[in-house]
Specification:
Helix content: 10-25%
Shape: elongated
Oligomer: single chain
Distance between the termini: 28 Å
Strand order of the largest sheet: 6-7-8-3-9-10
Structural class: alpha+beta
CATH topology of the largest domain: Rossmann fold
CATH architecture of the largest domain: 3-Layer(aba) Sandwich
Strand content: 25-35%
Largest sheet: 6 strands, mixed
Number of domains: 2
């Protein structure tokens, strides 16, 4: 199956939900819709499924316009955040229900239910009721019911958000492996950049109903086309620092001056913004040309084996993502270092004009083009 959205827009009570969306989902591809809450991910999925109709544009499946085709006549399955199962039916009957509705014979149903249950590791729970299962097992049951239809398109609307961390990690791995052997278009909605990176495939960034960038997940992550994309695809958000360029001399406000070589001959002097991801900010100087910033601690947020260090100096705000547990007192003075080769350069309009130097090596350019960097 192929799926193409052409100039799709939808508004409700004067509020724009989707604005002029154009995107193609390739046959057999795994795709992630990444965006914050209310960015339009679910609205786009409902349009694809036929639950809602667009105000303008067309939805093409296998080259056929299905814009006005109702959901019952589209070969689509959908898995939601909640564990939507029939509580009075066994796990077996929950999974088998789409096949029974389609009039499939009992022997084929038995074979296909056992196969998909084994694939999702719930073969030992087929005679239980959903309420006798754990949350992860209930979600696996819902996924199995969607997968057994063997449709050309399956939609996942943040299906793991209500599960604990360990289960989410486990099911992400299973989903990624599962769709390596499925000739199905899978579209997965998420609010978490780390989840998009873990799942791989093609990532489409959404913001306020608009598609702002799309491509292989590693390419979109490494080469954001704008500050908006860079902030969306970074957790914590990428640090954006106001600065200036004068030939090869760069500055970050009154806080630091350093040499910055631009690769674009058309880059003129003036106001720019430098971007650096929190995990590239260091407490130690690792290179002779690292940019030093003197800041004060606002808060040290310890999360598992990491510490998110929030710092500021006037209008300059920086977040560092540090490995390990680090204790800091509020208002403590701290010096951090920014490696020049890890800096993004954005113009005053927020468009990226230069990627970090470390991405420009021959090896990384090749890996990015192949989607493995």
């Amino acid at each position: 199956m192929s799926l193409e959205l052409q100039n799709i827009s939808r508004s409700v009570n004067g509020e724009c939900y989707i604005e002029d969306a154009n995107i193609t989902f390739e046959a057999g591809s795994f795709n992630v819709l990444l965006g914050r809450t209310l960015s339009g991910k679910t609205s786009l999925m409902r349009l694809i499924a036929g639950l809602d109709q667009p105000d303008t544009g067309r939805i093409m499946m296998n080259g056929i316009d299905v814009t006005g085709v109702p959901v019952q006549k589209r070969n689509i399955a959908m898995v939601y955040q909640q564990f939507i199962n029939y509580p009075n039916l066994t796990v077996f009957e929950n999974i088998a229900s789409p096949l029974r509705i389609a009039g499939i014979d009992s022997q084929t149903i038995l074979k296909r239910v056992n196969a998909v249950a084994e694939m999702l590791h719930i073969e030992n729970f087929l005679q239980r009721l959903p309420l006798e299962l754990s949350g992860g097992q209930q979600q696996r049951t819902a996924m199995a019911r969607a997968l057994i239809k063997e449709g050309g398109l399956i939609l996942f609307d943040e299906p793991l958000v209500n599960l604990d961390y360990k289960l989410r990690e486990e099911l992400r791995v299973e989903l990624r492996e599962l769709f390596k052997v499925q000739n199905t278009i899978a579209i997965y909605a998420s609010t978490e950049p780390s989840e998009a990176l873990a799942l791989g495939g093609v990532t489409t960034l959404m913001h306020e109903g608009k598609i702002i960038q799309a491509g292989h997940v590693n390419t979109v992550y490494s080469l954001p086309n704008s500050i908006e994309s860079a902030e969306l695809f970074s957790e914590p958000p990428i640090n954006i620092l106001e600065g200036r360029l004068e030939d090869t001399s760069a500055s970050i406000g009154e806080h630091a001056t350093f040499t910055f070589n631009t690769s674009n001959d058309l880059t003129s002097s003036g106001a720019y913004r430098f971007g650096i991801r929190p995990h590239h900010v260091s407490l130690e100087k690792n290179n002779s040309d690292d940019v030093a910033l003197d800041l004060r601690v606002d808060v040290a947020e310890i999360s598992g084996s990491e510490t998110f260090l929030h710092m500021a100096n006037g209008e300059l705000v920086v977040v560092a993502q540090l490995m390990g547990v680090h204790q800091f007192h509020t208002d403590a003075s701290v010096r951090v270092y920014l490696p020049i080769e890890k800096l993004y350069l954005f113009n005053s309009m927020g468009t990226m004009v230069q990627a970090p130097a470390y991405l420009s090596t021959e090896k990384n350019v090749r890996q990015l083009s192949e989607g493995i960097c």
